[in-house]
């Protein structure tokens, strides 16, 4: 994952309502959740939900699939895992340098 994509996805998730929507869809699992159920669970107006879902879809975090008159929202788990991995990839990478510096200071 490149830093530009990670920044865009983190920006999208930086909105409290959008983060709640995303967590609701992630929680639903691979089967996804119809839009009306997302709306019921969060208690937000349809127009607000539509706006937030659109941003999540545009940035590759959620996909939507139509089944008749029902629109199913699914988390794109590979995208979520890539973002989490990007954040954790270099966790403590400089710790060895810090440990060496503190040993020299003693």
Automatic annotation (TrEMBL):
Gene3D superfamilies: Winged helix-like DNA-binding domain superfamily/Winged helix DNA-binding domain. It holds the Pfam family HTH_20. Keywords: DNA-binding, Transcription, Transcription regulation. PROSITE patterns: HTH_ARSR_2 (PS50987). The keyword DNA-binding applies. SMART domains: HTH_ARSR (SM00418). The keyword Metal-binding does not apply. Residues 1-95 form the HTH arsR-type domain. It comes from the Bacteria. This is Metalloregulator ArsR/SmtB family transcription factor. It comes from Xanthobacter aminoxidans. The lineage of its organism: Bacteria, Pseudomonadati, Pseudomonadota, Alphaproteobacteria, Hyphomicrobiales.
